[in-house]
Design brief:
five-stranded mixed β-sheet
Length: 125
């Protein structure tokens, strides 16, 4: 499996950041990535992020996923996050359930087009 990496592009026209994460990751990779993306959103006065995690392999267990989400709760609480996932990703349902329980605007999608469309409806609201 490839080493963890991510990229992001600011889209001022659509008022969001496009990002993608790849490879095998541990908790600290995800925490640092979302902190950096959160700072980029804040400095550009944006509140929407679409991230393709379909090529990302989370190497940690379910309890650790919840631990990471609790640490990231403050980072993502004021943003809308659309996650493009692989249909075989079993941990994404847990992430979306956590978001619902904590009032976070995080939603999973199986394709990029639907993720962008959802964020656009939020940007127009």
């Amino acid at each position: 499996m490839a080493k963890f990496s991510y990229r992001a592009t600011i889209d001022n026209k659509e008022k969001l950041i496009h990002a993608a994460a790849y490879g095998e990751c541990v908790e600290v990779n995800i925490i640092n990535m979302y902190k950096n993306l959160g700072l980029a959103l804040k400095s550009n006065k944006l509140n929407c992020l679409v991230i393709d995690v379909s090529q990302l392999h989370i190497t940690y267990d379910y309890p650790s996923v919840l631990n990471v989400l609790q640490k990231l709760n403050q980072v993502v609480e004021n943003i809308a996050l659309a996650r493009v996932i692989s249909p075989t990703d079993t941990k994404s349902g847990l992430i979306e359930a956590f978001a619902e329980k904590h009032g976070l605007t995080i939603k999973n999608f199986e394709n990029y087009k639907d993720a962008i469309a959802w964020l656009q409806t939020l940007n127009r609201a």
